Amino acid sequence: MGCLALALAGCASTQFEIKGDAPTAAICQAPGQALSALVLWGPVWRPDQKDVPQREEAARQGLQHFLGTAGCFASYELRRLPGGGASVVPGDAELRALAAATRPPPDRVLVVTVRELGPVLKLQSAVPLVEGGTEVVLDLVALDAGRGTSIARFQARWRNGGTMVVKGVSSLPQDMSAAMSAATSSAPRAP
Question: How far apart are the first and last CA of the chain?
């Protein structure tokens, strides 16, 4: 019975890639630092996206978990971007103005646009195999609010799965948190 369970569970692996401008400085704080952040988030779903409210709640929970446990920032404020299912990402000048209007002013502004958050399932036709898992696609923009300079502007794609792996929606908050951890650790740490 144990072998059957292992065969059905499959072997999962995690893949991570970024596209865009490599971070020029650390997004997260270094040991001994105490950075604050204004974190803005919102989705830009594809037109046929299913279960939008559940995915948005999973994204919010995953971000909250990441921010509360990863040690990226000593303090933070998490806000939803305007625009509903197609969030509007402010330009750098607007982000600097938002940071200046926030009390106390944050050290970092981080914008997270969720493009994909969900299970993936592919049926192989040549051999009756299932390949599945979870995929998270995020666009990240980070600013050093004090200097008003851009730190990062890239897309992160995080996947966890493999052959004979079938995942549902229950792991989406954890997957979102793991994707954020991978994305922010891809940047250099502050000296």
Answer: 52
